[in-house]
Amino acid sequence: MNLTLKIWRQKSAKDKGQIVTYNVTDISDHMSFLEMLDVLNESLVAKNEEPIAFDHDCREGICGTCSLHINGEAHGPDRLITTCQLHMRTFKDGDTIFIEPFRSKAFPIIKDLIVDRSSLDRIQQAGGYISVNTSGNSQDANAIPISKVNADESMDAAACIGCGACVASCKNASAMLFVSAKVSQYALLPQGRIEAKERVTNMIKQMDKEGFGNCTNTGACEVECPKGISLNNIARLNREYLMASI
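Above: the chain's sequence. Below: its structure in token form.
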């Protein structure tokens, strides 16, 4: 297929960016979206032009670094996938595709389609862990009974890969779904209850410090999340914060 790509180009965080139009030809519908960008970059390099900078690592839907805004949607028009899992069969011959970086004050643009999402790392560092030393002292899995419901919900929350799609899809650029997933995966387990109060207060404090907005209750974050993280986690986060505040 032949496609028209309108891609955001920005040399650095201080430079003014703009949309630049490119044409790609003979794109196979079996290609992934990132493979299509690879083809474009190969043609740019062949013409001694600077290739488009975009982020990627595993290309297996695990790392979350391939985050792109495609035709106004985080990770593109498909659901429960990351950008690297989006295939060109989703589009049609002759389509025009707009490709932009995730937009948020807390995600400053580094270059072209790459943004700095270290703000999510700092939120995680503020409390997304347990301090108990388990080295050489691991217990049998049956030593602490945990209901299957709680175990399943904790695993579902732990599936969050921190890609930032929830932030990019929220009109307030809220990180509530991300924070709620990181809080929930521990709040549902007895090992996480020891530091529950400090965890939720510290992570929310850091979230506000990073400049993320408030939750809009529109549910766009859950729709665009590649791992289907539930809004129920935000309700749990609010309860945890309320209990920690009393």
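The beta strands are 3-9, 18-24, 69-70, 73-74, 96-100, 109-111, 114-115.
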